[in-house]
Write a structure and sequence with these properties.
- Helix content is about 50%, strand content about 10%.
- The protein has helices at about 5-15, 20-30, 40-45, 60-70, 120-125, 150-155, 165-170, 175-185, 190-200, 210-220, 225-235, 265-275, 285-295, 300-305, 315-330, 335-350, 350-355, 360-370, 375-385, 390-415, 425-435, 440-455, 460-475; strands at about 35, 55, 75-80, 85-90, 90-100, 100-105, 110-115, 135, 140-145, 155, 185-190, 305, 310-315.
- A 7-stranded mixed sheet has the order 3-4-5-2-1-8-9. Strands 6-7 form a two-stranded antiparallel sheet. The protein has a two-stranded parallel ribbon with strand order 10-11.
- A hairpin with a 5-residue loop joins strand 12 (about 305) and strand 13.
- Helix 15 (about 315-330) runs antiparallel to helix 16.
């Protein structure tokens, strides 16, 4: 890089925020180095406003805390083992990390951290060259020893040192590479792809929580097509086999619609289409929808069967897939509500097709809404996204059919309380009318009234009471005065 280019880079970084220079003067005044480093530097050159600021220094953590206590509004240890101190100055959050080098022992889940002695040594241990740029403070002197700015311009991912050493030291970088593919549209250089394949099994030493965090960032990328490209890199390099094997197992499975795509490619297309539908349904970077789109067909490999004439079927793959989705996300320690919602969407993703092409009855519409519950909007998006046929007439027919279903739901919602369908009588009223105590009989009565509600819509308390007493008589109950166990 020429000197004019270096000066232009420094000026651009200086314009991003005055706070780093102020902090830099504090450190230099006390005989220490300080540099703005990593993501904030990269983001300035991408035209993005940096979020939290990351710094690196030759001062050990204890010294960093001494220097900044009177300057920052609050100071805390992010992790003394990792040499990181957190600060807050006004509304800005900062982290300062002592120069370091770290690597994982062969079977360890935690890196061994050693403090370094120079900025260049610190930059060498970072994941990719685009994150190995720094601005020495307080004058923002630009440091780019590994050509990160050129790689940023060329949109490539390259490690500062050997890819083998980098991925051996921190295997999570394989997922981070896929995340940058998803978020920035970058492409890993061939040497990095080869190293990802070679060291994919090394991911086993990384905790499930850290893997899930990177996968979440990948899936929530706002870049069109980004999440699918990130997943594709993990599958093609064999990395996905070691944390989400259900996805690569979809390859080469022919789906029941005999499309030109295998189930794996179909799933990536559904993911893309679900993301494209988020604005229509006022969903914003929805993790549950995106995971459900990716995993909706993972039950197919285990349910594949041959039919006469060489055709293939995947009976009950929705139910099997829901169980697999629940198990895979639990294995990665995703939050319980995310696991439950994704599994439920996978279980429901064929429900629309189960009603066939006939006109939906009011009862069928109510059951569809009841089964989806609070996931109805996401189910709308997933069901529409699941149509990937190239047959335009068929696609338009399915689209019209779902338009009609949504219209029917809206019409019924005007007349009924569709979002919380429940019987006209609650459990307490049932017990009072039948003279019974809490127990299984109350549940049976409630289920009977729910069926009437779904079939006929709101009955009103009077008719519901009549129907309940008629049911009780048929069950051999005597109404009030029946024994506590309903006998």
């Amino acid at each position: 890089m020429s000197e004019p280019q270096r000066q232009a880079a420094a000026a651009l970084l200086a314009a991003s925020s005055p706070l780093p220079a102020e902090l830099g003067r504090l450190f230099v005044r006390h005989g220490h180095e300080l540099a703005l480093v990593g993501g904030p530097v990269r983001d300035v050159f991408l035209g993005r406003h940096p979020g939290d600021l990351d710094f690196t220094t030759d001062a050990p953590p204890e010294r960093v805390m001494q220097l900044t206590r009177g300057w920052a509004d609050s100071v805390w240890l992010v992790g003394i083992a990792f040499g990181t101190v957190g600060l807050r100055k006004g509304e800005v959050v900062l982290e300062i990390t002592t120069y370091r080098s770290e690597q994982y022992a062969t079977e360890s889940r935690k890196p061994q951290v050693r403090y370094g002695t120079s900025l260049e040594e610190d930059l060498l241990r970072r994941d990719f060259t685009v994150n190995a740029m720094a601005a020495r403070l307080p004058d923002y002197a630009f440091a780019d020893p590994f050509g990160g700015l050129a790689d940023l311009r060329d949109k490539v991912l390259r490690t500062p040192g050997s890819p083998a050493d980098s991925l051996t030291d921190d295997p999570l970088r394989m997922l981070r590479a896929a995340r940058f593919v998803a978020q920035l549209g970058f492409a890993p250089v061939p040497e990095l792809r080869a190293a990802m394949s070679q060291f994919a099994a090394r991911l086993s030493i990384v905790s499930a929580e850290r893997i899930a965090a990177e996968l979440t960032k990948l899936m929530l990328s706002p870049l069109p097509g980004g999440p699918a490209r990130g997943i594709a890199l993990l599958v093609e390099t064999g990395v996905a086999e070691h944390f989400l094997p259900e996805v690569p197992r979809l390859r080469l499975e022919t789906d029941e619609h005999f499309r030109h795509k295998d189930v794996y490619q179909h799933s990536l297309t559904v993911l893309d289409q679900a993301i494209a539908l988020e604005p229509r349904y006022r969903l914003e970077q929805d993790l549950v929808l995106r995971l459900a789109a990716l995993l909706h067909d993972i039950g197919k490999p285990g349910t594949r069967s041959r039919l006469p004439g060489g055709r293939v079927a995947f009976h009950h793959h929705d139910v099997v897939g829901a169980k697999l989705a629940r198990a895979s996300l639990a294995r990665l320690r995703f939050p319980k509500d995310v696991i439950a919602d994704v599994a439920r969407l996978v279980e429901l993703h064929l429900r629309f097709h189960g009603y066939g092409s006939a006109e939906w009855t009011d009862s069928a519409v109510r059951r569809y809404v009841r089964d989806a519950g609070p996931l109805l909007t996401r189910l709308h998006a997933l069901t529409r996204a699941d149509c990937t046929t190239r047959n335009r007439a068929k696609a338009e027919q399915l689209d019209r059919a779902y338009d009609n279903l949504e219209r029917r739901i809206a019409e019924l919602a005007e007349r009924e309380e569709m979002q919380s369908i429940r019987p006209d009588l609650d459990g307490n009223q049932i017990m009072q009318l039948l003279g019974i105590q809490p127990g299984p009989l109350v549940g049976r009565a409630y289920a009977y009234l729910m069926e009437l509600r779904l079939e006929h819509g709101p009955l009103g308390a009077q008719r519901a009471t009549q129907e309940l007493l008629r049911w009780a008589e048929g069950e051999g109950l005597g109404g009030p005065g029946t024994s506590p166990d309903g006998s």
